[in-house]
Amino acid sequence: xxxxxxxxxxxxxxxxxxxxxxxxxxxxxxxxxxxxxxxxxxxxxxxxxxxxxxxxxxxxxxxxxxxxxxxxxxxxxxxxxxxxxxxxxxxxxxxxxxxxxxxxxxxxxxxxxxxx
Length: 116
Known about the structure:
By secondary structure, the chain is mostly beta strands. It has no helices and 11 strands. Strands 2, 4, 5, 6, 9, 10 and 11 form a 7-stranded mixed sheet that branches. Strands 1-3-8-7 form a 4-stranded antiparallel sheet, with no helix packed on it. The relative contact order is 0.33.
């Protein structure tokens, strides 16, 4: 297991921005993906954005153009820059780490609330 520690959630007004951060501890697989998933009340878990250690990204259609996922050079930290936030972005955001050969690892979750 790889512990993941998230930070950066909070309350923001519509149109505002937040930046999430997640750091993985320990040695990581040479081929892996880190990213963000979210779950709103009454909704299923949704992939938001992912990035491999080679820099390949994927985005949910609902966030493409507004959110940007990135990783630090060491590859142990993933960020999610969220711009032009909407009320429907309100959810618990979970950090994810997936080695190519291995199981998913999840962060503790951080609440993002977009409201006036």
